[in-house]
Amino acid sequence: MTEADEHMDFDLEVEPEDEGQEALETELGDPCLVVDDLHVVYRVIGGRAKREAEKKGAEIHEVEVKVPFHKRLLQAGRRHVGAVSEVHAVRGVSFTVRHGESVGIVGVNGSGKSTMLRAIAGLMPPKSGSVHVSGEPSLLGVNAALMPQLTGERNIMIGGLALGLTPKQVDEKFDEVVDFAGIGDFVYLPMKTYSSGMGARLRFAISSAASPDILMIDEALATGDAAFKERSKSRIEDVRSNAGTVFLVSHSISTIEAMCTRVLWMHQGQLVMDGPVHEVADAYKKFVRAQRPGMGPARRRALQRKRAAEEAAKKKAEAAEQAKADA
Ligand SMILES: Nc1ncnc2c1ncn2[C@@H]1O[C@H](COP(=O)(O)OP(=O)(O)OP(=O)(O)O)[C@@H](O)[C@H]1O
């Protein structure tokens, strides 16, 4: 497997449960989100972080940090921690989204998809430009409020409160959240004992329970089985039919095609295409195929083996999870 393949970690296969599925067209309302010339920059310290970002194709600048005289005096004799660099993760992105839209975001690894969602959710300050939102965006992960050392039960309460529900409303939704996440009695154990799939499913269940105005889902649907995906799809349709908006980042293009009406394609922090789902998905598929021109039978088999091993590991983890839940 080449490094290029690792950076092109997305799936052009049609997942069986996505076959023939299309997102419902709903009547669109007024704009609920305006992203205007958004730039987001990370500061990284030290050579290793810089190399990691470079490997992902990020645009990086060395930064000259002026340390005030009193700090230099205080720091005298301390270990040098390395140069500061800036990773320009989102570069001048602008778009408008209306109530009721379901927007997919595609792009190769490191193209800035997650960073943009974090900026829309208010978790990353923009370097310049602006994000105007009407309503409360809920990034899957309940705005990162969940705490691994606490039980799922406590986290449902904390996450629900973070999303603006009252304690009574959280209590009323408790069973529904647990059922949706499919975690059974695990809800009474600390979240750090959960598999990553269980954690992601619980976060999705909590963040969508509050019927948010803007629901943002970053790769969570990849962690569930077909039944979970089906439940998620109908939850997404519920949010949209209440005039909410959904953002979905996924490496599975068939999931995007099944659940979204519009797609934003990001590359190296910029928006390269924004349009109806099939138009952008087709262009993106062509781009992906063109990036892998030399994929002969041996590399294709290696990729298939990798997928099969991942699938087997996922099934094994699910079976173990089920066995624990049944015990
Ligand atoms: N915490 C961070 N500190 C420094 N650089 C970061 C950080 N998070 C992301 N980056 C860099 O910002 C750029 C955009 O990353 P981001 O995770 O937003 O891309 P992505 O499209 O979501 O990638 P993926 O598909 O792999 O999740 C990348 O170059 C990445 O290395």
From TrEMBL:
Comp. bias regions, Basic and acidic residues: 307-327
Residue span of region Disordered: 292-327
ABC transporter domain span: 71-293
GO molecular function list: ATP binding
Keyword Nucleotide-binding appears in the UniProt entry: yes
Pfam families listed in its UniProt record: ABC_tran
Homology family: Belongs to the ABC transporter superfamily.
Protein name: ABC transporter ATP-binding protein
Lineage of the species this protein comes from: Bacteria, Bacillati, Actinomycetota, Actinomycetes, Micrococcales
